[in-house]
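A further point concerns the way the authors explain their paired sequence and structure data. Since the whole study asks how a given chain folds, the encoding of that fold should be made plain. A single example would do more here than another paragraph of explanation. An entry of this sort, consisting of the sequence and the corresponding backbone structure tokens, reads as follows:

_____
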Amino acid sequence: MDHSSDEDTEISDSEIDDYEGKIYARLMSGDLKVKKNGESYTCPFCSSKKKNNYSKSSLVQHASGVGAAPNRQAKEKATHRALVKHLKNELAKSPELRPQVIPVEPQPLQNRDEKFVWPWMGVLVNVPTEWKDGRQVGESGNRLKEQLSHFCPLKVIPLWTFRGHTGNAIVEFGKDWNGFRNARTFESHFAAGGYGKRDWIGKRNQGSELHGWVARAEDYNSPGLIGDHLRKNGDLKSVNDLAKEEARKTDKLVANLANQIEVKNRYLQELECKYSETTASLEKMMGQREQLLQSYNEEIRKMQQLARRHSQKIIDENQKLRSEIETKMNELDVRSKQLDELAAKSGYDRRNLEQEKQKGLLDISGGQSHIGIKRMGELDLKAFSKACRKKCSEEDAEVTAAFLCSKWEAEIKNPDWHPFRIVMADGKEMEIIEDDAKLRGLREEHGEEIYILVKKALCEVNEYKSKGSYPVGELWNFKEDRKVTLKEAVQFVLKQWRANRRKQR
């Protein structure tokens, strides 16, 4: 029996492996029969086909082709894959069929001048094909290569036309002698089974078995696809030709190697000479280096002795200088104290003198005049207090004003702070206060009035340029806020002198 009636339903691709296992179990149990009589086999899954009489190897080829065909249904693939697995298992167990898969040793070559296609190639004919979708389809090159793996082919190339697979293929082997031996084994295998070239040409009905042989001159020169492919991809060469060519290549290689060896020997001799010269030069240099090292060490010892003596001399001189400096510093301290006392006395005298002047002037003016002595560059504490009262209480205003006056008087007296730059006005150079960070901070923190007071005092000090930036007394018109002219000063003095003279009478 072939199939059971419940297997007529189709399966999906995801069920192929499971279904293949079921069919394989039925084949192994004998539920599905494969062998007919003698060497005749049948495909239990293609019973409706007219031709269903195979040898074991051709049945393997048939089942492999159907199982790998992309356009077959899932059930067909599964059943034929199970058949391939079963047949291969039977081939491994059957002693009488093993000669079909074991390569036969090639016979010794009788004519070494016989022309073969090189690189070594084999011709494979009667590859099973079938008509499918308007063209012939058959085994792929990879599938055929797998079936011929005993002969170690490099590639199997099926020959195609516009009608599809021709049933012919070219088997490519290696270019070396191992490739030639594999090609001869391939040919001997087919010839031993009655499927060689003579068998193919002599039989009218070759059946479904593959036939194969090594490509020779008659195949190379034959018309058709086989001859075209061989002529396009190979040349005709005999074993003697290749042997001679290899001998020439070997001789050339030997000559080249001998020449290289000779060149390398000469180079080695040159290296040995250079090595000897370099060794002698190094030994000489090492001797000179030892001498230089001894001389260097001796010089270092002398320099160290001189350095120690020189260092001791410097230490002694430094101690002497330190003593002299300490003496001088003591003298300077005494002199500095004396100068401080003199400076304090001078400052006291200067202040007294200014007070007395403010008093050859108040007496003259009777204390009522708008002309008097103004100390240029001195900050006005009353003006500071007035400005501070706008932001804080009476008590805090006095303290803040005193602090600001003291701080900015010190800043004005600082000779390193000179926030002026020179500009040209009417062809003359004049100094103006630039955008100074200190003044900008003063304005932002305490307001415009205090900023103007400090700026005015700074300009006055810069104008008079007194030593140490101390305030300078100036005869001033307080009513008009300007310096008194010489004429005004003379008139004022005469007026006061006359008034005092009248009083004395």
About this structure: The first strand starts at residue 115 and ends at 118. The two ends are 174 Å apart (CA to CA).
